[in-house]
């Protein structure tokens, strides 16, 4: 989760969140990163600043699952493809 002065970005896994963080940092925008127990993909049902504009990116489900499968297979937690 990235916390901005007037907004909150929910980092949904495999939807470009790392790119968003890099783009925001390169643009020089002020933000803090909020992690639950060191996990950037923390419980998205909890938002510490519900009074701010909250946004996230979503992805077409089939390509999301394909990307997630490839990620897990490459990490060694699934049988390699």
What's this, in brief?
The chain is of the alpha+beta class. The chain has one domain.
Task: Set out the fold topology.
Blueprint: E1 2-3, E2 7-10, H1 17-27, E3 32-33, E4 53-56, H2 61-74
Parallel strand pairs: 2-4
Antiparallel strand pairs: 1-2, 1-3
Structure characterization notes:
- It contains two helices and four strands, in the order E-E-H-E-E-H.
- The protein is α+β, with helices and mostly antiparallel strands.
- It has one domain (2-74).
- The chain has a four-stranded mixed sheet, with no helix packed on it.
- A hairpin with a 3-residue loop joins strand 1 and strand 2 (7-10).
- The relative contact order is 0.23.
- The mean pLDDT is 81.
What is the 3D form?
Answer: globular
Order of helices and strands: EEHEEH
Unreliable parts? none
Query: Structural class given helices, strands, pairing?
Result: alpha+beta
Tell me the number of structural domains: 1
Query: What is the spatial order of strands in the main beta sheet?
Result: 3-1-2-4
* Biggest beta sheet summary: 4 strands, mixed
The strand count comes to 4
Distance between the termini: 31 Å
Let me know the average pLDDT.
Answer: 81
Residues in β-strands, percent: 5-15%
Helical residue percent?
A: 25-40%
Radius of gyration: 14 Å
Number of helices: 2
């Amino acid at each position: 989760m990235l916390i901005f002065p007037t907004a909150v970005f929910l980092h949904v896994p495999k939807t470009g969140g790392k790119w968003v963080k890099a783009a925001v940092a390169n643009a020089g925008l002020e933000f803090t990163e909020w992690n639950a127990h060191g996990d950037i993909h923390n419980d998205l049902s909890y938002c510490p600043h519900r009074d701010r504009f909250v946004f996230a990116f979503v992805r077409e489900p089939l390509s999301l699952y394909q990307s997630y499968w490839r990620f897990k297979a490459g990490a060694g937690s699934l049988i390699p493809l």
